[in-house]
Amino acid sequence: MASWISMDEACRLLGVQPQTVYAYVSRGKLEVMPDPVDTRRSLYRAEDVAGLAKRKQAGRKHETLAANTLFGSEPSIPTALCSFFRGRPHYRGQDAVNLARTATLEDAAQLLWDAEQPADFSDAASSPTARSGKPGRIAGFTVLASLSAGGHSTRGRLTRVLHHEAQGLVGQLATAFGAQPGRQPLHLRFAKGWKQPPEVAELLRTAMVLLADHELTSSAFVARIAASTGASLPACLLAGLTTLSGPLHGDASGRVQSLFSEVERLGDDKVVAHYLSTGLPLAGFGHHLYPDGDPRAAALLALFEPPDVIVRFIEKVTALTGLQPNIDVALAALVAHYRMPADAAFGLFATARSVGLLAHSLEQLGVPQVIRPRGRYVGPMPEAEAARAVAIAPRSSSRRTDGPPPGQSAARAPDRKRASAE
Questions:
Q1: What is the pLDDT of residues 359-385, one digit of tens each?
Q2: Distance between CA atoms of 422 and 419, rounded to whole angstroms?
Q3: Secondary structure of residue 95 in the 3-state scheme
């Protein structure tokens, strides 16, 4: 039987504050359960706490720390935008799931950008550039690439000017993805552009607020790198969105849509049996930040009823794997149920997350240094360095007890030794 300890005991053993314990829980490093005596309190697995304490005491070498900082073990960039408390995302301290019940993406932008005025994404919505070509990601990336080519550096410009430019970028991107031009909030423009009824507009509003930011993701990090060099806002946004487009990041909903297509063709039983028997991962299930389930997905899925075949599939996968659906499943189910355009899931995600990417870019402008990690070289040595190493080897080998006999130079040592040195 596992033993469980209180928050106070966990903090004492780890030498940390409760906030750090919550962070360990949200990252899946520490298992938690309700206290059966007092459900208002939580208990923490003693074995997990002991393991964390041991690793903390052992310490880490500089190289390991640097590598882990990049690959997710430690937060590497201070930010006031988004963090996780008790397994839920918060925007500047406000619960994002609660915020999504009533807020618009415009409200979320004002909060994340710390702007004085409400965001208005209609500024450039009617731009001919934004309307060129067929709506979708090609149009969206083309618009941003064109704006990036002639964009102005972010350096030496007032924040309110950058906010105004950021609003125009989000507005143009939304139009490129199919939102109808106009002065209404983006969720209403998307509903009209995709020919959806008003009740679906509310679902789009909720989804976009839930997707607006998610702490230091790969795309946010890339946007920050671009911003640290003084690149223009459209260039920062383009850098972030190209990273977001990867199937292991913002386009994961595309993988889920393909999975749903298999389910509709072959049935949920066959698809689940195939994936589980072959050990293939099921896209859209589980999230390392949410061991108890993605609250964003739960909030969105509670607002509509996906097709029966998708519902059965989700229930079956959860029962057999223990993994809960994440936001990519919820987004793909929304698009499938209301028969939105094929690229609607990515368009919705990209437009919403553009708010967060711009927020990270703007926040990074307050740091004067350029983000420039160092590489730890593990490749072959240059020929000159290799020759130098061989030249030095005799002097060091002459001190070894198994070296050549006195009076015999290292250069005349047996071929076996010279071969091993090479």
A1: 999 999 999 899 988 888 888 888 776
A2: 5
A3: strand
Query: CA 26, 77, 90, 286 torsion: positive or negative?
Result: negative
| DSSP secondary structure letters along 211-231 | HS--SS-HHHHHHHHHHHTT-
Alpha-carbon span 270 to 267, nearest angstrom: 6
- Residue 89's DSSP bridge partners are 84
CA atoms within 13 A on the CB side of 187: 24
CA nearest neighbour of 251 among 362, 140, 88: 140
pTM of the full structure: 0.76
Burial label, 322 (beta-carbon count in 10 A; 0-12, 13-18, 19+): exposed
Looking at the DSSP bridge assignments, the partners of residue 82 are 91
Which amino acid is it at 331?
L
Residue 323 has phi, psi (to 5 degrees) of -90, 135
Task: Classify the C-alpha dihedral 71-72-75-78 as positive or negative.
Answer: positive
Radius of gyration in angstroms for the set of CA atoms belonging to the chain, rounded to a whole number = 27
Residue 328: phi, psi to the nearest 5? -65, -35
- Residue whose C-alpha is closest to residue 220's, from 240, 236, 238: 240
Condensed to tens digits (0 to 9), the pLDDT of residues 14-67 reads 989 888 888 888 788 898 888 888 878 899 999 899 988 887 776 555 555 555
